[in-house]
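Attaching the record inline, Q. Sequence:
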Amino acid sequence: MALKRRNFLKGSAALGAATGMGLPHIWMKNTALAQASNGEIKVGVLFSLTGTTGIIEESLNKATILAIEEINDNGGVNGMRINPIVEDPASDPATFAEKARKLVLGDKCVSVFGSYTSASRKAVLPVFEGRDNLYFYPTLYEGRECSKNVIYTGAVPNQQQDEFIPWLVEKFGKKFYLIGSNYIYPKEENNYCKKLLEELGAEVVNEEYVPLGHSEFSSVINKIQSTQPNVIFSTVVGDSVVALHRQYRAAGLDPEKMPMASLTTSENEVAAMGGEAAAGHFTSAPYFMVHQSPENEKFVEAYRSRWGGDKVTHFVSEPSYFQVYMFKQAVEKLAASDITPPNIREAIKDVELIAPQGRVLLERENLHTWLWPKIAMAKSDGQFEVLQESPEWIKPLPYAAYPDQLCAEDGLQQV
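Structure, as predicted:
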């Protein structure tokens, strides 16, 4: 059940003015925190421009740069310009960690905007936790993380699946085939999906994972044809999405009878595969390019004006854009000499703004974001048709699949 913000804030402080892969924690002692200086605020931009997830991450880079340019063109932050230092980690977690160390230790960035996959976020996490720096992460992700050094602006499972899975069961039936890329995000999302399916009396006929960058889905298609699920629940990412959709269509499968339902297929992947390959399939996300609001109209127009009239916006480029404005609001509260990562973290709690998707709020307890879930169907013209939208914004619950755990302001708690 959705929680209204007024209920959540009852009894709390008033709003403010506005694992996986590990690396050794080896740091130089007694070295000052990164901070703004010489009239500029240095930030890192760490999205892959090449490699298997470059198909999606280059658009996150573009959205981030657009927001920074807009802010600088309008006087910066309290008269200080944001200086973006761009690195290409080439879709490789180890390179992500290497570039993160450079941005934090070498370039002294006060925050870094980056990552698409959870594998890359996990790879850089020791850098930001060991150095008490901030990583702004815009991607929908699996939850089950409680870090004081990450600002999470993408959706967590309850914000994508709580309305989506019951809708799919009602519309299409109770037999689900789970197919995902082989890393933490798809596996955790599928764990949550299975929890919801069990509550609905539905079943999983098969669960399978393919390597990142996988492009040969003939065996998967054969298994789908033999098991005849009602829904193919996809958490495949990157250019593998394109291959899966094209091979589904080539096999003559029918989305009206057996649709793919995805948490990861956006306008960007649709543009790469072609509208015909995507048509009739479904995605759940807080943002679609067709969403109608003055803020979204401005965002889409600015993005296309800057990067090309054929470009599309999507549910990860949108938080990549608005999280820079969250950063701006936080830094505006600080004196120039106080612009350090720990101070930015405190200042950004409860920051609220109207994003292209609607009003969003940075949750002070867990540093995740209140968002607006939507269910949409892809069309042959490359866009989506929004079929259902949550009537209110939804509180982020990063541990929804683990009811005995809670991410609170002072850290992970057992409940």
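The chain has 14 helices and 17 strands. Residues 1-31 have pLDDT under 50 and may be disordered.

More tomorrow.
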